[in-house]
Amino acid sequence: MRCVIVGYGVQGRKRLRVAGVDAVGIVDPVAPEAHWRDIREVPLDRFDAALVCTPDAPKVAILRHLAGAGKHALVEKPLHADSAQELGLLTINAFVAATGVIVPVQCEYLSLRGLVQLENTLAMVRENLNPQVGVEGIVATMYDGRTLHSREAIEILEENFGDLVYRTRIRKTIRYAEAPVKGSSVLKYDPEGPAAEAYRDLAKEVQGGAQAREHA
Question: Which of 135, 125, 138 is nearest to 87 (CA)?
Answer without folding.
Answer: 125
